[in-house]
## 1
Amino acid sequence: MTKLELLVSVMKDGKWYSTDDLVSCVGHRFSATKHVAQKQGYQFDKRREGTRFEYRMVSTALRPSA
């Protein structure tokens, strides 16, 4: 399973995940994987909870291929 597939499988439920959660599931460069997902049409929300950030996937629709 690629890191992108792993990220999508974890976050497709729409729940909020902390940076620590994503590092333990996807790896310490989860933000690079999230960037790749965004380029493919996935959308994420980001919020700050105290001193840490949390992320959730809000759209799993991929852009149509050209």
## 2
Amino acid sequence: MNRSVKIGEIYRYRPTGTVGKVEDIREEQGKVWALLDLTKLYYDVDYLEPADESQYRDSSFKEREPDRETKLRSIEELQESLREVDISGFQPSGGG
């Protein structure tokens, strides 16, 4: 049981590997919960362990810039979808 969690310190939630700084601590029905900054979710402190600062990223998952491989994969998928479009059945309408 990890009841020594402190606001401002970095912890990792063991079941998912989520890492964040503790912003708030609250106790409800005999359980202690810590709010992690990046997810804005409360975690049971029994499953938190101190994390190294190198594991912490100060932006949320949604705000992070995609890595190079993810960008390349997105471009390749877009190029593939454009190749799959068949315009041979379209006729010019001659509007003018």
